[in-house]
């Protein structure tokens, strides 16, 4: 699940995701609260602690002293086996790796089977679209077929563009489509989310068909709708006099037509008259939205766009992460003879003479253009200079580098070369992402080589 928090008056979007809605909401709220602290709208001591203070758990073992809640004392969600034990009332005395015994296979099976049942229940509940009458009775079941008929009639050849979201174990998809409608002389756009490609495509088609219906291009659905016999029982609503006066004032200001009361009170009446009001097409906007810059988060993986809810990185502070990565690099530089030999080869490249000048320019400028002959080391060396400087100055958790390449083969080969120069395999401090293939690097202090399409 992916959650965004927007508050009127603040130019910031809090973001968070996780394997369940509650933790995704908590992560998004945490992100927005951190923003409020950065802009001095809140004080840090006003915010309850999300995890243990530094030094409380020197051995870095997770300890869950209260498994009755939805999250552990470390601020992240409970692992599946603790959720099952919390629901059954069995509180383990020690949830670290100091001898706790639990049946991993059985507990995980119960956990994921329960999640699957909840997903089926949510899908069945969403099949009843109570607002279908407002949109020409177009629903998920009939919209895609009507959109295909519209494409055949107008000779439109468009395909859904899919974008993957979330980690591999909890993958979801976004489907989007942009089509030109000659009857309107302009384009319409839809971008919808689904747990799989089929649901995402159905939601995207439904959005397009409803837009075409309200714009007067297609007719309302005349067939039998699914579960049409089900309806919501009407019930009376008591309004305060103040709210009633405000409604009357709003109706007068907007010049709305009041629907007369039915002669028979037992017969319901629609509150919408005719079609929706016509609005002039607005200027094209970026549908992804603009998210302002924010500092790196210790529990966020930028390469997967997902919170790190489990493992040691979920609770380490940026300072601890930076210290660990620096210690690892310095140890390898001192002990690894092969790495020392590679470092000597790197120092022979022409760009090495300009390392300090390049880093100084990057510190004092937001955009730096480096011009050099082919093979001087611009692509392979400059990202490593930046990365090593951040690691050696205890700022490793603040550094992630993206390097674009024009071709797939160049992105893969350069990533493999840089990994070799660092004495590693792709997927550690260096990775790549091209179409149909990705080897993602670690969440912090890493370099990603990718093609411009990604």
Report on this model:
The protein has 454 residues and is an alpha+beta fold. It has 3 domains: 2-54 and 62-120, no CATH class; 132-214, Double Stranded RNA Binding Domain; 317-451, 3-Layer(aba) Sandwich (Rossmann fold), CATH 3.40.50. It has helices at residues 21-38, 80-88, 104-126, 143-154, 197-214, 241-254, 318-335, 337-347, 355-364, 378-392, 408-421, and strands at residues 2-6, 13-17, 161-165, 172-181, 186-194, 300-301, 306-307, 400-405, 430-434, 437-439, 446-451. The strands form 4 sheets. It has a 4-stranded mixed beta sheet with strand order 8-11-9-10, with helices on one face. A 3-stranded antiparallel beta sheet has the order 3-4-5, covered by helices on one side. Strands 1-2 form a two-stranded antiparallel sheet. A hairpin with a 4-residue loop joins strand 4 (172-181) and strand 5. Helix 2 (80-88) crosses helix 3, helix 4 (143-154) packs across helix 5 (197-214) and helix 10 (378-392) packs across helix 11. It is elongated and about 90 Å long.
């Amino acid at each position: 699940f992916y959650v965004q928090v927007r508050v009127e008056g603040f130019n910031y979007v809090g973001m968070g995701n996780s394997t369940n809605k509650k933790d995704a909401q908590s992560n998004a709220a945490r992100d927005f609260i951190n923003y409020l602290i950065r802009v001095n709208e809140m004080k840090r001591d006003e915010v309850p602690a999300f995890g243990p203070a530094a030094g409380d758990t020197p051995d870095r073992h997770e300890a869950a002293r209260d498994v009755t809640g939805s999250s552990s004392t470390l601020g992240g969600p409970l692992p599946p086996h603790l959720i099952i034990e919390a629901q059954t009332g069995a509180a383990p005395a020690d949830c670290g790796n100091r001898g706790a015994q639990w049946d991993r296979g059985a507990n995980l099976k119960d956990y994921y089977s329960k999640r699957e049942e909840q997903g089926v229940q949510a899908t069945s509940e969403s099949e009843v679209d109570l607002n279908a009458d407002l949109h020409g009775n177009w629903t998920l079941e009939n919209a895609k077929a009507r959109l295909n008929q519209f494409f055949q009639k107008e000779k439109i050849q468009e395909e859904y563009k899919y974008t993957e979201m979330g980690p591999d174990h909890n993958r979801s998809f976004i489907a989007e489509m942009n089509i030109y409608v000659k009857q309107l002389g302009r384009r319409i756009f839809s971008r919808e989310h689904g747990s799989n490609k089929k649901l995402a495509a159905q939601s995207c088609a439904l959005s397009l068909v409803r837009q075409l219906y309200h714009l007067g291009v297609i007719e309302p659905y005349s067939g039998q709708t699914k579960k049409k016999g089900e309806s919501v029982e009407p019930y009376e609503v008591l309004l305060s006099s103040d709210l009633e006066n405000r409604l009357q004032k709003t109706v007068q200001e907007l010049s709305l037509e009041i629907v007369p009361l039915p002669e028979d009170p037992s017969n319901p009446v629609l509150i919408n008259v005719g079609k929706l009001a016509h609005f002039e097409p607005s200027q094209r906007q970026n549908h992804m939205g603009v998210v302002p810059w924010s500092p790196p988060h210790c529990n966020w993986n930028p390469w997967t766009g997902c919170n790190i809810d489990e493992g040691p990185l979920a609770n380490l502070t940026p300072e601890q992460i930076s210290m660990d990565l620096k210690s690892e690099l310095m140890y390898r530089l001192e002990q690894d003879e092969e790495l020392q030999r590679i470092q000597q080869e790197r120092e022979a490249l022409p760009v090495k003479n300009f390392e300090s000048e390049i880093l100084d320019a990057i510190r004092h400028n937001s955009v730096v253009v480096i011009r050099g002959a082919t093979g001087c080391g611009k692509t392979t060396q400059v990202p490593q200079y930046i990365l090593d400087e951040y690691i050696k100055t205890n700022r490793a958790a603040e550094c992630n580098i993206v390097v674009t390449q024009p071709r797939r083969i160049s992105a893969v080969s350069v990533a493999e070369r840089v990994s070799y120069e660092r004495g590693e395999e792709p997927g550690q401090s260096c990775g790549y992402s091209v179409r149909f293939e990705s080897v993602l690097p670690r969440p912090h202090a890493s370099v990603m080589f990718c093609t411009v399409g990604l």
